[in-house]
Amino acid sequence: MDNLNICPVCGNELIKNSSTGKYRCETCDKTFTKAALCDKCKKEVEILAACGSTQFFCNHCNELKSKKSIEFFLKEEV
What we know:
CATH superfamily: YfgJ-like
Helix content: under 10%
Largest sheet: 4 strands, antiparallel
Radius of gyration: 14 Å
CATH topology: Rubredoxin-like
């Protein structure tokens, strides 16, 4: 099981809503979204999805990033 299936708050398994793409923990009642970090500056990148394709753009480095070069993490919704 990868770390996108585990709640970063309590460590229990998350449930993914397939229609919204959000992750929910029933134990601590928190909701998360998948986000990504730039490999160079470690800042959050913008996820661009259109026409069946997903690209990642770092506004700080001002460049496109490949899926292999970024690190995914769960970001808590407020």
